[in-house]
Amino acid sequence: MKHIARKRFGQNFLTDDGVLHQIIRGIGPGKDDVMVEIGPGLAAMTNLLLQAMPHMHVVELDRDLVARLKKSYPAERLTVHEGDALKFDFLSIPVPEGKKLRVVGNLPYNISSPLLFHLATISEHVLDQHFMLQKEVVERMVAEPGSKVYGRLSVMLQWRYHMELLFVVPPEAFDPPPKVDSAIVRMIPRKDVPACDVAALEEVVTKAFTQRRKVIRNCLSGMFTEEELLQAGADPQARPETISLEVYVALANLWSQKTPKS
């Protein structure tokens, strides 16, 4: 029986074989990998991944698809976790000593940013992530200072990951076709994450980009003096989208010193 894609779950199923194989080549699955796929849908990618490995995990919210997956694959080949990936504890997946999780998925556009931030909290336990996302979101993720799309998402994710846009996927590769282009992004957790309090960085970056057309001195007024901005390496007359990750980290560390935890 044909599964009808559900709008409330943001379902767009990838059906293009050429694109699917290109994604699998990009992931490069190995037989000993601990792989978890978010939103396997009709299992197009799951099928190909299981050709390279004896077992994997999937996280699926749609009950009908959960039942379909359990019926299609024996438990020793596929462990199906029913639930919302935004609330799922990825550290509950058993990982052998010395191994890390590999996470893949065609992420629903409506939850992509919060899901990326949810996964960022466990980045030290992850080997890599390969996701299909809205092209515009991937461009924001990998944007460099000076780009019009460089912003909060760029800074917060680049603090934890090395990221690369691998290739673009057109709407006609899906059923039903979305109204926008998609893209595959590779995310590799950094081993050299700059020391910084994540809450402080979030606070500084959020305030900076709330009024991105203003200069950084005005955006962060009330948090830093002009002298403090200079101390952190920021030109007070620069706009938020021209400030590097390193300077935002320095500002966050300065903010942590100014607002000691009680």
TrEMBL record:
It comes from Undibacterium luofuense. It catalyses: adenosine(1518)/adenosine(1519) in 16S rRNA + 4 S-adenosyl-L-methionine = N(6)-dimethyladenosine(1518)/N(6)-dimethyladenosine(1519) in 16S rRNA + 4 S-adenosyl-L-homocysteine + 4 H(+). Specifically dimethylates two adjacent adenosines (A1518 and A1519) in the loop of a conserved hairpin near the 3'-end of 16S rRNA in the 30S particle. May play a critical role in biogenesis of 30S subunits. It holds the Pfam family RrnaAD. One of its GO terms (cellular component) is cytosol. Its EC number is 2.1.1.182. GO terms for molecular function: 16S rRNA (adenine(1518)-N(6)/adenine(1519)-N(6))-dimethyltransferase activity; RNA binding. SUPFAM superfamilies: S-adenosyl-L-methionine-dependent methyltransferases (SSF53335). The lineage of its organism: Bacteria, Pseudomonadati, Pseudomonadota, Betaproteobacteria, Burkholderiales. It is found in: Cytoplasm. Belongs to the class I-like SAM-binding methyltransferase superfamily. rRNA adenine N(6)-methyltransferase family. RsmA subfamily. Residues 19-191 form the Ribosomal RNA adenine methylase transferase N-terminal domain. InterPro entries: KsgA/Erm, rRNA_Ade_diMease-like_C, rRNA_Ade_Mease_Trfase_CS, rRNA_Ade_methylase_Trfase_N, rRNA_adenine_dimethylase, SAM-dependent_MTases_sf. It comes from the Bacteria. This is Ribosomal RNA small subunit methyltransferase A.
